[in-house]
Amino acid sequence: MELPSSAQVVVIGGGALGLAAADEMVRAGLDVLVLERDQLGSGSSAKPFGGVRATFSDPGNIALGQRGLEKYAALHERTPGGIGLARVGYLFCARTEAEALALEVSTELQRSMGSDAEVISPRRAAELNPYLDASALVAASFSPQDGYAQPSLAVAAWAASARELGARVLEGVEVTGVETTDDGDGRRVRAVTTTAGTVRCEHLVVAAGAWSRSVGQMAGIDVPVEPVRRQIAFADVPADAPGGPGQRPLPFTLDLSTTFYVHGSPDGLLLGISDAAQVPGFGRDYDESWLPAFDAAAAVVAPSLVGLPLRTGWAGLYENTPDHNALIGQSAHVAGLVVATGFSGHGFLQAPAVGEVVRDLVLGRAPEVDVSGFSPERFAPTSAAPLLREVHII
To answer: Among 250, 283, 317, where does a domain finish?
Structure first.
């Protein structure tokens, strides 16, 4: 497909966020063009299993997560073969009284918003995940509605749907510039220049993940995201071991003290941790530098996972913001420019809901989910907006 000369809306980024938004917008009758410089889903959405949850401490994150779960269930049902959705639940583990109190507060908020999450005992947590050492825990929270899906399948489903409805989705086209014009009331999006030519547009959606800051610079705005490598691996376990083939699925289990996590999947146990020693950057080569941190955490929480032989591993990028929460909203400096990035690990799970939000912002109507707390302007030096304080960050 050749690059068109114009489109109502240009979406930069062919990952989960960009394609979910494109699908929603074309359903609303908008003329949409998605530009992906590589292959669809080759950025942060390349991760084979992505958590889907509404377990958060901030009302905005909870609302986006809940709507995301609803949309993923519908997408799974209407997609031939599904998108690998598994409602195995999320199990957050607290090892201090302060963490336990935070879980109680956030769980109460989640339940007030319709969640089925509950605070459970260490013993119950170890029943749900036998790898856990109950004596190391003070409390835990469990949310059965949560789980995981396969991002590559979701991306393919959105792309197919958007194309069928008339959206144009191009791979191998890199955006090299953003043209704006001043109509007397301020700057407005006019066009994007690419490696394949120029496209005139009325609206521009920045959904480029870890690469969004450079796109913002093209438009003369700051999009405060920083790329950080995250690494995960799979380990095989015997057929009769917890999480083994044919056994009861393990919940997505996380240690709040260290961000150590483990969950079962059709490909074995998935293991990971947020490595505090990781230097920001765009490198995505896999190595085992994260294993000492993982083993140190596992030695306390799940000792039998220490030194578990790994079958395969890979690296991807988080796009972190200063408060580790998303940037969603219309730019205050360039009319027609909508930002949907900086999800800091929450992007896949929030993508279906944010797709609806982006659609509404482009159409000039108030989104059903209040995203004012995720304003892209909240980090500006002159901003008085409070930063988000999310407890459930991985």
So the answer is: 317
